[in-house]
Each structure stands twice: as structure tokens, then as C-alpha cells.
Design brief:
Blueprint (H helix, E strand, L loop, with lengths): L3 H4 L10 H6 L6 H11 L2 E11 L2 E11 L6 E8 L16 H30 L5 E2 L4 E2 H4 L2 E8 L15 H11 L28 E8 L8 E3 L5 H16 L13 E5 L9 H4 L5 E5 L19 H19 L28 H9 L8
Parallel strand pairs: 3-6, 3-7, 7-10, 8-9
Antiparallel strand pairs: 1-2, 2-6, 4-5
Helix pairs in contact: 3-4, 4-9, 7-9
Bound molecules: zinc ion.
The site of zinc ion has 4 residues, from loops.
């Protein structure tokens, strides 16, 4: 069976090849991550800072990549790139394949897929050829006002035991930094056609539509709950994407792994990088396996626990989900030119547009209740 989300980029044939192979080497991955985004032409920002930890002062750096830094708003896809530190051998050989090498690798894989589509749309808009289908409420110019930003947090892990002050060093720093960085009146958010409700003095946090945090993924089993009423709809959209891929037989389902997305909302939440953003009013979708993988924080969390069918399933879910959210479709210039992203109608089944999806964010704009 042929399908676009299977063919391009090439799928992983082993857990030590491609991005994942590079990320399964302890540390020393900042340069690698940076090189991937730089090659793709994304804007890079690093936020270095020194944090006080139970083992002394440590230098951290969050890595932030934005496709279009001039866009008024953004959806953030995030993961942490640090591996938990252990003082003694052999525990200090800890890799963290699911925690969080695989989620970072999935993100890199995703941006390689998205970049040509984003560039094509950008070129169309620049030439005044952005697609407008009024009857479907589809306007590429408007859609492109929401860019995608990747945030890779440093220092997620506690150095000793997880506490409010010994954990999520990078996320706490970034949320604080952004909440105190006010937008000046020339910021494009003021020109945006469909701006969100703004606080009296908007900060960078006001430009975030949603923060989607990936963690503890890539092993055979995942169970993803919704934790916040405000983003139940994002959870159910991701579930629908998984269901669609299943129905079209575009993903391999391992035995007993049919259900990855629960229909129930979990009350309470899980401590992770989203918390300092959540507490400042940012809308969160936490994509984390619950319960955690059995190998969590053990040496067993290495390449051997990763499952290729599960990784491929995540890669495809993320591609379709993100394309739908951003209003990107490889179908758009099918008639006008042949590119490597041009495919036949039949091939596009996994990426077919869901216009309902695009309309939903506007209906869900209010920041009221969460649970
Ligand atoms: Zn961890």
C-alpha cells in the first residue's frame, strides 16, 4: 500500500539510525539538534542561564526553533532534551530513550516533513497566490498567522528527588522569562486578523495558542489521557487521527496496542515541563504515557525498549495532526506543479483535510475552566 506519510521522509528501519541514533548518545546533542534546524532554515534562539541545583550551580540552555518568527501567534511542540543525571556508575550510563530521546527525535522527523510544506505555502502567500476558499472558511494567509515553534527544554530532570525547586529548570526559567517579556506595539499580534483576547499588557505567553508537551513515548505501549478540559478537543483530534490511520491501515498496531488514547479525562496532572506555563494561563496538551514506561528512570530505558511500529505510529500521528492544525496539505498545488510532495489523490488519504479541525480553535478561544 502506498501512502505519503509512509514514503517521505523514509521510515526508520532501526532504532539506532537517523535522528534517534544521534540522540541516544548521552549529552552532546545540542549541536546536532541545532544543525538539523539550521539546515532547514528555522530561526534559532537559545536561552542560556545558570540554575542552582542540589549538586551546585549548573549551566542550562533551552533550545527554541521557530518556522516564522514574524508570525503573530504560535503553536508550541515541546520535549525535554536532557537525560537524568545519576552520580554513580553504572546508573550514570542512563540514556532515557523514551525520556526523552524518542520524543525529540520524533519532533526532528516531523519538522523535516513540515518544512517543505510550510515553505511552499509561504512562497504562495508572498506571490499573492495564497489559497482562499471562503465557503470552507479556509484562508492560507490567515492560517499562516499561527506558526509552529519547537521548544526543547533543558534541565527537566531532578538532580536528587523531584521537588518544585529541583526539577524543570529550563521550563521554569523560560516561563518566567516570557511572562516578563512584554510585546511592543509593533508586534504582529496587534495586526493579526483573528487575535486572541489579550491581557492589558501582552507578553510572549499571550502569543501561544497551545503548548503540546511530549514525554515518555516510543516504547510499545502508550496510554494518553486528556488532563485539561480546555484541550479535550486537541486530545480527541489526536485520537481521531490515530483512529483514521488505523482504519486506513496506515499504521502497524502491535498486539493489544489498539487503544492509545483514553476516552476519559484524568483529573489531576503529571509534574512536567508544562507546569510553569499552565500556572501562567497557557493552554496545555500533555502527551505523556500514563502509567509511565516500566523502565522509567532505569538503565533499561535505552534503545532496546523502543518499538519501531510504535515510533512510526507516533511519527504519522504527529504529521497528520500537525498538518491539520496548521492547515497544511500537500494537495494544495497538485494541479499547478510537480514537486516531490505532489501526490495522487489516493495517496493523500492520511493527510486529507479536516476543515472542522481548523475552525475549532476560534470557537475554543476562551480561557475559562480547567480541571
Ligand atoms: Zn525522566
Amino acid at each position: 500500500m502506498s501512502c505519503p506519510i509512509e514514503l517521505d521522509p523514509p521510515q526508520w528501519n532501526s532504532v539506532t539510525e537517523g535522528h534517534l541514533g544521534k540522540l541516544l548518545i548521552p549529552r552532546a546533542l545540542q549541536n546536532y539538534i541545532s544543525s538539523v534546524f539550521t539546515k532547514l532554515g528555522w530561526h534559532e534562539e537559545k536561552t542560556p542561564f545558570r540554575g542552582t541545583t542540589p549538586i551546585g550551580d549548573i549551566d542550562f540552555t533551552n533550545l527554541i526553533y521557530t518556522f516564522d518568527p514574524s508570525a503573530p501567534r504560535k503553536i508550541i511542540l515541546a520535549a525535554h532534551f536532557d537525560s537524568k543525571w545519576f552520580p554513580d556508575s553504572p546508573a550514570n550510563q542512563f540514556i532515557g530513550a523514551t525520556d526523552s530521546a524518542a520524543p525529540v527525535a520524533m519532533i526532528l522527523h516531523l519538522v523535516e516533513f513540515l518544512t517543505p510544506l510550510l515553505n511552499e505555502r509561504k512562497n504562495r502567500i508572498e506571490k499573492g497566490l495564497g489559497i482562499l476558499k471562503e465557503e470552507e472558511n479556509f484562508d492560507e494567509e490567515e492560517l499562516s498567522e499561527t506558526t509552529i515553534q519547537i521548544v526543547l527544554f533543558d534541565g527537566e530532570e531532578a538532580f536528587k528527588d523531584w521537588t518544585d525547586t529541583d526539577s524543570i529548570y529550563g521550563a521554569r526559567h523560560l516561563a518566567e522569562l516570557w511572562s516578563s517579556t512584554y510585546l511592543d506595539s509593533s508586534h504582529s499580534v496587534y495586526r493579526s486578523k483573528n487575535k486572541r483576547r489579550l491581557s492589558p499588557e501582552p507578553t510572549i505567553l499571550n502569543t501561544i495558542d497551545h503548548l503540546i508537551l511530549l514525554d515518555l513515548l516510543g516504547n510499545k505501549h502508550s496510554m494518553i489521557y486528556s488532563y485539561f478540559r480546555e484541550t479535550d478537543w486537541l486530545h480527541s483530534k489526536m485520537k481521531q487521527v490515530d483512529d483514521k490511520l488505523k482504519n486506513e491501515k496506515l499504521i502497524e498496531i502491535e498486539p493489544n496496542e489498539d487503544l492509545w488514547f483514553s476516552n476519559f479525562r484524568m483529573s489531576g496532572g503529571i509534574g512536567d515541563d508544562h507546569l510553569p506555563f499552565l500556572h501562567r494561563g497557557v493552554s496545555i496538551f500533555h502527551v505523556i504515557s500514563n502509567p509511565f514506561p516500566k523502565v522509567w528512570h532505569t538503565l533499561g530505558d535505552d534503545a532496546s525498549v523502543l518499538s519501531l511500529p510504535a515510533l512510526r505510529r507516533w511519527n504519522r500521528i504527529l504529521r497528520v495532526f500537525t498538518c491539520e492544525y496548521l492547515g497544511l496539505s500537500p494537495t494544495t498545488d497538485m494541479k499547478t506543479k510537480k514537486s516531490e510532495y505532489t501526490r495522487s489523490n489516493e495517496d493523500l488519504v492520511g493527510l486529507r483535510f479536516n476543515f472542522e479541525f481548523i475552525k475549532l480553535p476560534k470557537l475554543m478561544d476562551s480561557k475559562d475552566s480547567r480541571s
